[in-house]
Design a protein that fits this description.
Blueprint lengths: L14 H4 L4 H22 L3 H10 L2 E6 L5 H14 L3 E4 L11 H14 L5 E6 L10 E2 L2 E2 L7 H13 L7 E7 L8 H6 L2 E5 L4 H14 L9 H7 L5 H18 L4 H13 L9 H22 L2 E6 L10 E5 L9 H21 L8 H16 L23 H28 L1 H15 L1 E3 H10 L8 H10 L5
Parallel strand pairs: 1-6, 1-7, 2-3, 3-6
Antiparallel strand pairs: 4-5, 8-9, 8-10
Length: 484
């Protein structure tokens, strides 16, 4: 019985209007479409020998990347453009529904494609067809051969790809897969000479994706803080951005409008899991708010770091708040100023405890440990040999590669750095005592989550000067004998 081919039905999206986030990849996709159009042109002109050589050199394209990276979205865009050029998209999933594909299935599928190609150009589409690409894994210095069960199928698949050059009308194959290129059968990769790797989007791409999906769900992107959302989603694939916007949109429909808080909640759920089943008493809520804002956000801002987010809502790991900041133009990442600014920020929780008695302990242990790690990174600028990984609960270098005298010296230096940072944090908290109380009790406790634009607006209204303690930080660094 002959195989009955079925069409691949793409979503109603276009390459020009709906593919966003990866400008260079979009150029590659356009090139694929232009290549397909050229194949049909030379076929109509009777230049079969040129068409044969082109198809022999480039049987198809591989779209590779993590799940959710945007491969399928790109595939649908290309299929729609190819249809405009007269191509008929064939759904290859008919061939790879089995765990182990029989070579006969491969042969019969391509026999049906050859017959259809007598009438029209074809685009054969395999979405997430990992088993068609082989499954080599690293064994020693080389990659092992494909699994014995798949070798007959792969041999037949390669043979059929070689035969595409002899079809009446041009045929191009597109395969998407989360497989990395070095796990793919070498001969298959050679025949699919066009490889597109879909990475996690960079900052500008993430902003474009947020804008795109917000508009798709009927929201005005200018009403939310795209910059903060983009920062929080660093390293996250495109599909998760769509998922987060869709979930927040559902909440918005119920609650009467989309807010930054709804989007940030969804991001936190994705990054940290659902909130823990603990709830905060009013008193604990105020303590955490003082800790996250007065302890961390304000000292970071006062020495020149950029505030991104402050929250007092419970998290999946049982902790009660989050504070995010990043380096600024005046404090480049990995500089002595950046590491010392992080120590000042970490020691802020101790400053809040001392000045307000609003922190749960004398600075949470995680803050003290984080301050020690930042202090060690600062110390390593002068002593690169001690830049080593330390455990989560360590407060000084303890790998045993140095003498007791060395370890004591390092511990004393870290203590000296932390004490200097604490002194600056206490000055900041003392000067802005009234502003800390106002921001914490009248804004953060009520909102629970505040993003960069809201924080900066509140700072402006409270007359909190950005980077006011930057020079004091630099002077302290000089006294500690570190580069500024």
């Amino acid at each position: 019985m002959a195989v009955k081919l079925k069409p691949f039905n793409p979503r109603d999206i276009s390459l020009s209007d709906d593919f966003i986030g990866f400008p260079l990849i979009q150029d590659e996709l356009r090139e694929i479409v232009e290549y397909l159009e050229y194949l049909t042109k030379i076929t109509e002109e009777g230049k079969d020998e040129i068409k044969r050589m082109l198809v022999a050199a480039e049987s198809g394209s591989l779209f590779l990347g993590r799940t959710g990276a945007g491969k399928t979205h790109a595939l649908h865009c290309v299929v729609n453009e190819a249809k405009k050029k007269g191509y008929y998209p064939v759904d290859g999933s008919l061939m790879h529904e089995k765990a182990v594909i029989d070579p006969k299935d491969v042969r019969e599928f391509f026999d049906a494609c050859r017959k259809l190609a007598e009438e029209k150009p074809l685009l054969i589409v395999y979405d997430d067809a990992r088993q068609l690409l082989g499954s080599r894994h690293r064994g020693g210095a080389e990659f092992d051969n494909n699994h014995q069960q798949t070798r007959p199928m792969l041999s037949e698949f390669r043979r059929q790809l070689d035969g595409l050059q002899y079809y009446t009308n041009p045929v191009h194959v597109i395969v998407t897969s989360a497989t990395v290129i070095w796990h793919i059968d070498r001969q298959i990769a050679r025949r699919f000479s066009r490889h597109l790797r879909f990475p996690s989007p960079e900052d500008e791409s993430r902003k474009a994706l947020f804008n795109y999906y917000l508009e798709k769900f009927g929201h005005d992107p200018s009403t939310v803080d795209i910059e903060t959302l983009s920062f929080l989603m660093e390293g996250v694939v495109s599909g998760k951005i769509e998922e987060i916007v869709s979930k927040a949109s559902y909440k918005a429909d119920i609650n009467g409008g989309l807010t930054n808080k709804m989007l940030v909640r969804q991001i936190i759920r994705y990054l940290q899991g659902p909130p823990s089943d603990t709830s905060l008493s009013p008193e604990n809520k105020i303590n955490v708010a003082y800790h996250e804002f007065g302890g961390h956000t304000l000292p970071a801002y006062a020495v020149g770091l950029e505030p991104i987010l402050v929250t007092i809502t419970p998290s999946a790991d049982g902790s009660y708040g989050r504070n995010f900041h990043r380096h600024s133009d005046s404090i480049p990442q990995s500089s002595a100023r950046y590491h010392f600014a992080n120590v000042i920020t970490g020691m802020g929780s101790t400053a809040v405890y001392q000045e307000f008695e609003k922190s749960k302990e004398e600075g949470r242990m995680s803050d003290l440990t984080g301050s020690s790690k930042s202090a060690l990174s600062l110390y390593a600028l002068k002593n690169p040999m001690v830049k080593m990984r330390i455990g989560e609960d360590d407060t000084y270098l303890s790998r045993g590669l140095f003498s007791d005298e060395n370890r004591v010296e390092i511990e004393e230096e870290i203590k000296r750095i932390k004490n200097s940072a604490l002194e600056i944090s206490r000055e900041i908290i003392t000067e802005y005592h009234d502003q800390v109380v106002d921001f914490t009790e009248n804004l953060l406790v009520k909102k629970e989550i505040m993003v960069r634009s809201e924080i900066l607006e509140a700072f402006n209204e409270l007359n909190i000067e950005p980077g006011k303690y930057y020079d004091a930080m630099c002077q302290a660094l000089k006294k500690l004998d570190y580069p500024v």
